[in-house]
């Protein structure tokens, strides 16, 4: 009976952090050894970091990567380790997995299918490997095979699918199955998105069943390079059964998920597959044999059941909280910021940002403990660190309410109540005199008084912009990171003031729609994440209708009057932008989706959306970095590109109006 203890490792790496990345790889190898693992799969490009961008083209990066690889080789004595790095060969750059065994480099497998859609841009840097081709690469006067390889160690046959390879129509797994491999390793850099884990589970389980193998999936973890959050998913399946699933969205640097695999049982199950059709000689020239012997190990099983929150009825709310909290935490510590500053308006968006920071500390303390969290924030002054959530939030989160004559007592009380409830440092600034000084200055310069009847938008915008210098100054004084608080629904239609409420170095909620944010805030008030709890002080926030509160109070300004109902706005955004429907198609579908709304009202709202979307691309281009959460992202730098100047759907909208007028 051939038993092998296999480990899938999640790593929280940082691009170009040679010392830190190397130390975490060593830590991962040691942790996996302690669990008895003799075959360890580390994530894609974990040596350099996945998000190096154009630095992949740097000769220095290539040389340092090889230097670190050589440093890690001795740490594989008695075990087998797969790790990812870029490799320059034949004048081209390849995304590779290197297999190390018993203190030796055994060979390099190059990625066949590059991720080039959505947030991924691999074809900019890497070349796809030509399927069956095998070559030789010389490193330090040694020659090693590179290509689509099968490694045979102690009679156990091992193949690779690197991340996107497993999602392609012509994936390597089919040929690897025909070559009768026993294990397929999948080192990945797979970004977080709502609901994606269930898709991964199906992929890994079905791959193991269809190919008659043990399938090992490892992933990166955390906010690696600023915009993308990796959830650290680790999965091990055999013959259609999921053996182990690791913890996701952990605050740890390293997580190890291990399972005992019976290779002989896997082979017998494969032999029973009617679909298994071995091809004699396939990969014969691509097989790398080694004298390595897997040590005999006693049968053991380390259970790593999915966390309870993964099975929650509110799994999207749980994922959102935990993913953004982890993204914020890594951004904080990797940027060496000394906390966060938020302009807390008393409305939903800024409240969501503040609660997410609070949840970040709650989750971090729960998992790491006070000492562990303090160690990760060791760059801070000792009095800024603490072992309780209340102390950490008070030291590292500053909320500022900035009122004008148009601000209400309702939002003032809501902001103060929330800040007090989560323990944030709360400041109250009245900026009305600053606003009026600008109004008077401009009125004098142009020779007339400004009025709400003729100058509505400028008078609204100056209030938002007058709040920016003070909040930036507070962030500077505290060496803290200013969070902007615009959501995706506002980004779609430009319902935001540039250099006003868009000010900030990070936009943590600009990847999520307003309708979800409002329901999430209600959930946070009433329930909250498992192990974290609720924030009852959100009650005054949740009782309000969304308002910019920039017009005089007598105007009773409401966002959904200025725009349209947020539920409909978000639906139109998905239909028009995600699904690329024309104005006419959106209108036709909207009549089915919203039958109670009059046709002419629908037309007005749909026309308003397309006009505002086209007019405000320049605003989206200037947003602070945001987190990717789903396939409805509007970030033009990573997901959704649109011309800054365009025809604005004028002809399409005119045709729609003519059609409706003839009805």
Give me a quick take on this structure.
39% of the residues lie in helices and 18% in strands. The chain contains 21 helices and 21 strands.
Mind explaining what this structure looks like?
The protein has 663 residues and is of the alpha/beta class. The chain has three domains: 3-306, Nitrilase/N-carbamoyl-D-aminoacid amidohydrolase, CATH 3.60.110.10; 310-560, HUPs (Rossmann fold, 3-Layer(aba) Sandwich); 564-663, Arc Repressor Mutant, subunit A (Orthogonal Bundle), CATH 1.10.10. Helix content is 39%, strand content 18%. The chain is built from 21 helices and 21 strands. It has an eight-stranded mixed β-sheet. Helix 1 runs parallel beside helix 2 (59-72) and helix 17 crosses helix 19. The longest helix is centred in the middle third of the chain and has 29 residues, at 348-376. The termini are far apart. The model has no long low-confidence stretch (mean pLDDT 94).
